[in-house]
Design a protein that fits this description.
The complex is a heterodimer.
Chain A (H helix, E strand, L loop, with lengths): L1 H20 L23 E7 L4 H18 L2 E7 L1 H14 L5 E5 L14 H10 L7 H5 L9 E6 L2 E5 H6 L9 H13 L14 H12 L16 H14 L11 H9 L5 E4 L2 H7 L4 H6 L3 E4 L14 E7 L6 H12 L1 H10 L4 E3 L9 H4 L4 H4 L1 H4 L11 H8 L2 H11 L4 H15 L3
Parallel strand pairs in A: 1-2, 1-3
Antiparallel strand pairs in A: 3-8, 4-8, 4-9, 5-6, 5-7
Helix pairs in contact in A: 2-14, 8-9, 9-19, 19-20
Chain B lengths: L1 H9 L1 H30 L16 H8 L1 H33 L5 H7 L2 H4 L2 H11 L6 H8 L13 H29 L3 H9 L4 H29 L3 H6 L11 H9 L5 H10 L1 H14 L12
Helix pairs in contact in B: 2-14, 4-9, 4-11, 9-11, 11-15, 13-14
The chains are: A alpha+beta, B mainly alpha.
Chain lengths: 441, 302
């Protein structure tokens, strides 16, 4: 009896001491901050599959962190990289066949396609959330669909913002980048008149196309489905957004209907494009370019968050990164330890910095990371997770939302209306029919 | 036991079957099984990540009513017919030119094959740059020459995109047709031409009455393959446009991929792929029955 009491006393006092020692590290002074007490399995070996880096600094620091983990725990970790679009089907196959990597870093709705195949990571997420300011609320639909259990650990998003040439915007008569859609349209028209046009991808561009088209439709109050997954894309709000898109298209550089993801990067760095939406990679490429003409472009490149539409709040769409542990893994505890380790500031802070802010982390604590302020142009990307609303808005994620996104239903609708090949009403009706196929009961 | 072995070794039928066995296994494993599985998948609602159940013709019913699929079918037929006809005409003309005794003919015959042997993905990337709306070399050259004032939107306008992809396909596919027809031309004995010219036939008449009839079996073979490859083309479209703009260049193969892999609906993608089979069969049968060696080619009445 006394033994129990002593053990309990020792544990609690050790916990309190640890908590006190960790005081300066805690973002939110939370007396109930959970302690992480878990030991990985002995002789564990982990296989991790992640998406290929978008910037070299990302994978360099990631592997350094992995090495630290291996040294600390004597657990062998093998990391494989694939293009992010290729990871998705591989993850689905692994889930279906019950064999594959222990941990997969994937994107968007994936975890909602096979939630029962994933390990419950509520303990890791509660620990990380309580210690580091909590995850952004937008993580819930992605990885906590029932509101109680976490089926994956959110990593962050590949932030996308407006990328523009300051000199062009000033010459068009704007001292700062417009914050609402009315101002934005005025800006684009002025840019076109001055011969420094904008351009946004309207081809089957999985990254850029989906980001700006969904932002636009959502900004006016349109949405693919309502909370009950009923398709409501054909609505007056959507039509308003399509009329707006039509006016906007008149200001674009020619050829945007054929643009895939790399096109706007190429045109911007060549000085033919003066406003577009993109990740921080354009700025990164300009800063590190060997070509002196491109390098001096970097001083003129600025970023801004996507403007707010009539709905009155930000409606950005960002590429979400998740981290999933699969039930077939022989070492779930080691896997949890790995994810927890990689999300701690000793590992994550340097990783965010090496990636020059390409990934906006999912924990609020990392808003303090110096990368967001060391160059003030990085700051808009810090808020990408604050401003985003989830994929499949406003319904639940699953096969239907994933299928509708992959089939470019919204992108095609905006492209059809903008280019005039269909009237906005026709485009919305077609999108309605296509989406209904995916969301059929 | 040895008596049985000796009997098998001496029985022609048994030996025949035994020699066929390795190929049969390979064919079954890598041809029949995937084909059968793919066809079966088209009748289910399988998704990536979970198995599905039999739903009969539901996928096909939906596809028939889906505007994008019908557009893809139109695109595929248009693409195949236009590209194949032009490839045939150009290939035949090239073959006739190469059949002559010109200087460096061996060099030309080798060089002509280059577009075909360069990996499609690489030549597609090159075409992607050539057709780029901002950086096209064609637009740049034409603008320098003063013929146009704006860069041509090769891949942004739906019809431009269709013709641009057809042009890229023709560039890539002509060598195959040309070399095969050249081989066919070489089998035609020159004595026929001599006899014809002695009878006073013009070059066009020689072509019409000697070359074409004797060439038709080869034409049947090469055009069957050419139509097959063009109809099922994937790499070129995927790299150039991913099926855009506005699905104007989506072929059945690329749409099938888009629905099945990123979209997750394996059943629907398989259904689209299976839907290609009747058209391919029709093409093969036309070549087989329409262009075979017949007695009328040798001069007598059919």
């Amino acid at each position: 009896m006394s033994q129990f009491k002593r053990r309990r006393f020792l544990k609690t006092s050790a916990g309190l001491a640890a908590g006190a020692a960790a005081g300066p590290l805690i973002w939110v002074k939370d007396a109930h901050a959970q302690q992480w007490t878990s030991t990985p399995e002995k002789g564990a070996k982990l296989r991790v599959l992640r998406w290929s880096r978008f910037v070299q600094g990302d994978i360099d620091q990631y592997m350094k962190n992995v090495q630290k983990f291996q040294d600390k725990y004597q657990i062998e970790v093998r990391v494989d990289s694939e293009g992010w679009e290729d990871v998705r089907p591989k993850a689905a196959v692994a889930a279906n066949t019950g064999a594959g990597p222990d941990i997969i870093l994937s994107t968007n709705d994936d975890a909602n396609l096979y939630p029962e195949k994933l390990v419950d990571v509520t303990d890791v997420c509660n620990y990380l959330g309580s210690k580091y300011g909590g995850f952004y609320p937008v993580c819930d639909p992605y990885l906590k669909p029932d509101g109680k259990k976490w089926i994956g650990v959110p990593l962050g998003v590949a932030g996308v913002c407006m990328v523009y040439r300051q000199s062009a915007v000033k010459a068009a008569g704007f001292d700062e980048f417009p914050k609402d859609t009315d101002g934005f349209l005025k800006l684009c028209k002025a840019l076109k008149e001055k011969g420094t046009p904008p351009g946004f991808a309207l081809g089957n561009a999985t990254g850029d196309g989906n980001t700006w088209c969904q932002w636009l439709v959502w900004a006016f109050g349109g949405k693919l489905v309502d909370q009950n997954n009923k398709v409501v894309i054909d609505s007056p709000e959507t039509l308003k957004s399509l009329e707006y898109a039509k006016e906007l298209y008149g200001t674009f550089v020619p050829g945007t209907l054929s643009w895939l993801d790399p096109n706007n990067n190429k045109a911007f760095l060549d000085g033919q494009l003066f406003l577009t939406n993109n990740g921080i990679s354009i700025y990164y490429a300009a800063k590190n370019s060997q070509d002196p003409k491109v390098k001096e472009l970097a001083a003129d490149i600025y970023h801004a968050n996507m403007p707010v539409g009539p709905v009155g709040k930000p409606t950005e769409f960002q590429l979400f990164f998740n981290q999933m542990i699969f039930r077939y893994s022989k070492y779930p505890k080691a896997a949890k330890e790995f994810l927890r380790f990689m999300m701690e500031p000793e590992q994550m802070d340097p990783w965010v910095q090496s990636g020059i802010g390409y990934v906006t982390p999912a924990l609020r604590y990392y808003e303090k990371n110096p990368i967001w302020t060391v160059d003030p142009k990085h700051t808009p990307y810090r808020d990408s997770m604050k401003n985003m609303i989830p994929s499949g808005y406003a319904g639940k994620m699953g096969y239907a939302s994933a299928g509708a996104l992959a089939d470019f239903i919204i992108v095609n609708m905006v492209a059809e209306a903008a280019s005039g090949s269909k009237t906005p009403k026709e485009a919305a009706e077609r999108a309605q029919k296509r989406a209904e196929r995916y969301y059929k009961v | 036991m040895t008596a049985l072995l000796t009997r098998i070794q001496n029985d022609r039928n048994a030996l025949g079957l035994l020699f066929l066995l390795p190929t049969a296994v390979l064919l079954l494993l890598f041809l029949t099984y995937p084909l059968g599985l793919g066809t079966w998948l088209g009748f289910t609602d399988t998704k990536i990540g979970r198995s599905g159940e039999w739903i009969g013709l539901e996928n096909f019913e939906f596809l028939w009513g889906d505007a994008v699929t019908r557009l893809a079918l139109f695109n595929t037929l248009f693409y195949t017919i236009v590209a194949s006809v032009i490839k045939f005409v150009l290939g035949l003309w090239l073959a006739i030119l190469l059949n002559r005794n010109i200087r460096f003919k061996t060099f030309f015959r080798a060089v002509i094959l280059l577009p075909y042997i360069v990996p499609t993905a690489l030549s597609a990337i090159a075409f992607w740059w050539i057709y780029d709306s901002q950086f096209s070399i064609i637009s740049w050259a034409l603008q320098r020459m003063g013929l146009i004032d704006r860069y041509i939107d090769f891949l942004g306008d739906p019809w431009n995109a269709r013709f641009s992809t057809i042009a890229a396909n023709i560039w890539r596919g002509v060598p195959f047709v040309a070399i095969t027809l050249l081989a066919g031309l070489q089998t035609i004995s020159p004595s026929y031409y001599e006899a014809a010219s002695l009878d006073g036939a013009s070059p066009w008449q020689q072509f019409r009455y000697v070359t074409l009839p004797l060439l038709t079996p080869i034409i049947a073979v090469v055009m069957t393959f050419s139509v097959l490859f063009t109809f099922t083309d994937f790499q070129l479209i995927y790299v150039l446009t991913r099926g855009g703009p506005l699905n104007a260049t989506h072929l059945m193969a690329t749409l099938s991929f888009q629905r099945a892999i990123p979209g997750g609906s394996l059943g629907e993608g398989a259904a689209i792929a299976t839907a290609m089979v009747p058209f391919l069969l029709a093409a093969i049968l036309i070549s087989y029955f329409g262009l075979q060696r017949r007695t009328w080619q040798q001069g007598s009445k059919d």
